[in-house]
Design a protein that fits this description.
Elements lengths: L1 H15 L3 H7 L11 E4 L4 H4 L3 H14 L5 E7 L2 E6 L1 H14 L14 E5 L14 H16 L3 E5 L7 H13 L2 H7 L1 H17 L1 H15 L3 H25 L16 H10 L3 E4 L2 E4 L9 E4 L7 H16 L3 E7 L3 H13 L8 E6 L2 E3 L2 E2 L10 H19 L6 H17 L8 E3 L1 H4 L7 H17 L20 H11 L1 H11 L3 H20 L7 H25 L8
Parallel strand pairs: 4-5, 4-9, 9-10, 11-13
Antiparallel strand pairs: 1-3, 2-3, 6-7, 7-8, 11-12
Helix pairs in contact: 1-2, 5-19, 7-9, 7-10, 8-9, 9-10, 10-11, 13-14, 15-16, 18-21, 18-22, 19-21, 19-22, 20-21, 21-22
The structure holds arginine (ARG).
């Protein structure tokens, strides 16, 4: 569509003797397709032309109609607006031409060339199992990571492991008291969690335990070999568990530098804060006073001298800046940590780092499950393994019912089950809380992953019926003459918006824009499919329709891929 806008802007600019860029900035996309493909609100010209908008619209529409340009079907003045209608066949050639030209790298751009973005996502805690609460950060972060890369950025995916802190001292103390190597080896994280819960319970009665826990963490901080080797073993167990999930979801990271990575790097940062006069003492702790900004103080060193989560994040931000020289740095973390990130960013700003403004907390809402909040303590928790397992089982049952003869049932069930979960999690505005429901996620109708995947399958099978392999209809230049009906035009308009959606996703750190776009595109194609015979007898008509189908197929599979969702060719 952008090309049509440019042409309209050129015509408007020369008719009103204004700058082309200015004319372009005046143009709007009409709210309904009946109102054309571009609109000029004439009140924007009222001052220079010294006339009422409806008079301007009438006069300009007449002038512009007298000088048509390629791509323009007609111009109409309506009230204070001029509506420009694109020539449908021309539009089809533009849109499909672009897809044909970029069929091997759809959505790719060099807009981010030379720029680097750090994305901190998933960032799980050691000795905890991956549960549904970690899914948003993992999926949103990974989607942003892929889309940044597609737009030409250098992206650094960072799993800032929660692998340091007093709780790990407690865990080691508990293991030494009650744990056994065999049991932990056999039951993994479950055994660790049990130890931790028991420790917390018994510590309420017996103050010696708390002391033991503290001593163990201190030993870790001082580099005690035995304590660290137990801890590193716990860490390996957790990571092995997480890796299984990451693999299944197609998630990758460039760095697993977590909190412990910064233990030996915080000293100089604390020193720098001191030198810059930012540290004050408060009840024995060293803090940065943020009262001027209506925030509680940011604690840098606790009264016992221990560092904090915030100290590690400040250090990590500096490390990332020095190591990667990022232009942007994102933290995909739940909104419960809003204050934490505001404090950390403010402290970096007070340290004099103007790049603090390039740090962004990409916050997201809470996840509940079928109306129930999740709580580890109350035992209401849904582990990711279980969630994915159940999703895949349900998908398998549906396949068994609908297409029992499918050759690679197990693989397709995996793709649909996981696709359903990912699509559901990425469908809403990220800041909204999510309530996960099975029947909503796995629905084959409406705005779900399976529905979009099914539309992709439909495209592939229409092409197959015509004897075409995927992509084959995109090997020739478009004609477009037979794509002027309203349904086809709606599909084309959506197709033309794909690149713009990717940019918008990055601008707003909002992958749900892409998820919704794919649901809209699937829906528009399905209307087209019901209203028009793709495999028409007329060869020219059929060729156009098949090319449109192939373009939709490619856009759906590319978009799903960027969200981490597979696009099967049959299901
Ligand atoms: N491990 C933390 C948690 O589960 C999230 C860490 C987010 N990243 C960061 N740089 N603070 O709450």
């Amino acid at each position: 569509m952008t090309d049509f806008f440019t042409r309209v802007a050129q015509a408007v600019a020369s008719a009103c003797s204004i700058d082309e860029a200015q004319a372009l900035s005046f143009l709007e996309t009409p709210p309904q397709p009946e109102l054309g493909d571009a609109a000029l609100p004439c009140f924007k010209l009222a001052r220079t032309m010294r006339k009422a908008p409806p008079a301007i619209a009438a006069q300009l529409a007449e002038e512009l109609s007298a000088q048509p340009f390629e791509g323009l079907k007609c111009v109409k003045a309506v009230g204070g607006y001029i509506n420009f209608y694109a020539d449908g066949a021309w539009l089809a050639r533009q849109v499909l031409g672009h897809i044909v030209d970029t069929r091997d790298c759809l959505g790719q751009s060099d807009a981010g060339q030379g720029k680097t973005v750090c994305i901190d996502y998933s960032s799980i805690n050691i000795a905890k199992r991956f549960h549904i609460g970690h899914l948003s950060t993992t999926l949103i972060g990974a989607a942003l990571y892929r889309i940044y890369k597609r737009r030409g950025w250098q992206a650094v995916g960072i799993n800032h492991l929660g692998d340091w802190g007093t709780q790990f001292g407690k865990m080691i103390a508990a293991f030494r008291r009650w744990g056994s190597r065999e049991d932990v080896e056999a039951r993994g994280i479950d055994a660790l969690l049990e130890l931790y819960v028991r420790f917390d319970r018994e510590a309420q009665e017996d103050p010696v335990l708390a002391e033991e826990g503290r001593a163990c963490f201190l030993a870790m901080e001082e580099g005690d070999e035995d304590a660290l080797s137990i801890f590193n073993w716990f860490k390996e167990l957790t990571l092995a568990d997480a890796q299984r999930v990451y693999k299944r979801l197609g998630i990758v990271f460039d760095s697993y530098a977590g909190e412990s990575f910064y233990t030996d790097k915080m000293g100089p940062v604390v020193e720098e804060l001191k030198q810059k006069g930012l540290l004050v003492e408060s009840q024995g702790a060293q803090v940065v006073d943020l009262s001027q900004w209506n925030m509680p103080p940011c604690i840098i060193l606790k009264s016992d001298g221990a560092t904090t989560y915030a100290t590690r994040d400040i250090t990590a931000a500096l490390y990332r800046k020095n190591t990667y020289g990022f232009d942007r740095s994102l933290y995909v973390v739940a909104y419960q940590q809003n204050l934490h990130f505001k404090q950390v960013f403010k402290v970096l700003e007070l340290m004099g780092y103007d790049w603090a403004s390039t740090l962004e907390h990409v916050a997201f809402g809470m996840v509940s499950f079928e109306g129930q909040t999740l709580s580890t303590r109350k035992g209401r928790i849904l582990y990711l393994d279980e969630l994915l397992g159940r999703a895949v089982d349900k998908a398998a049952a549906i396949i068994e019912e609908k297409s029992p003869n499918l050759p690679d049932k197990a693989e397709v069930a995996e793709q649909i089950g996981i696709g359903a979960v990912c699509f559901f999690m990425l469908y809403n505005n990220r800041i909204k809380d999510i309530d996960f429901w099975w029947d909503r996620a796995l629905n084959f109708e409406g705005e779900t992953g399976p529905y979009v995947q099914y539309t992709h399958v439909r495209c592939a099978s229409v092409l197959a019926k015509a004897g075409l392999t995927p992509g084959q209809a995109l090997m020739h230049a478009p004609n477009g003459a037979h794509l002027t009906d309203a349904d086809a035009q709606r599909v084309l308009t959506l197709l033309s918006g794909f690149d713009g959606i990717l940019d918008e996703v990055l601008l707003r750190s909002e992958p749900s824009l892409l998820t919704r776009y794919l649901a809209d595109l699937a829906q528009a194609y399905n209307s087209y499919y019901y209203n028009q015979r793709i495999l028409d007898e007329d060869a020219a008509v059929r060729a156009d329709r098949l090319q449109l189908t192939d373009a939709v197929r490619l856009t759906l599979s590319t978009g799903l891929g960027l969200l981490g969702i597979a696009a099967p060719n049959h299901m």
